[in-house]
Amino acid sequence: YLFEIDANFQIVRKIQLFSLDELVGKRIPKAKKPDFEALEIIDNKELIIFGSGSKSPQRNLFIRIHLDSMEIKKTDISLFYEKLKSIPEMKDVELNIEATSYKDGFLHLYNRANNLLLRFNYAYFIDFVENQGTWSKPKAFSFSLPKINNIESKFSGATVLDNTPFILFTSSVED
Question: Cα–Cα distance between 131 and 122 in angstroms, integer?
Answer without folding.
Answer: 13
